Amino acid sequence: xxxxxxxxxxxxxxxxxxxxxxxxxxxxxxxxxxxxxxxxxxxxxxxxxxxxxxxxxxxxxxxxxxxxxxxxxxxxxxxxxxxxxxxxxxxxxxxxxxxxxxxxxxxxxxxxxxxxxxxxxxxxxxxxx
Length: 129
Known about the structure:
Blueprint: H1 6-30, H2 35-58, H3 85-102, H4 109-123
């Protein structure tokens, strides 16, 4: 599905962060040496989701109806059914790519800032080893 409107991009980001929170909670159970790290990542994903939700509802204006080109949901699909370390690190790379691609396409300054902060958060995560 094409992410060709403000609402579609923001909804995808909300759902992505929600899925990541659940994924990290499961990974925390499956990888005891990394429990604290995964629990923190889950909490951070929930916080990002909430910020995106607030931004989506607050920043809906007529300007947000301008079409967005070049984003397709299929490019950012992640299989989160496995919680192995390789999947964790791969998922973060896909998430970073989504925010890197989507952020400059958002024409609402405040919402773009929210997505920029999400990208910064994900870039700041060290790969799990």
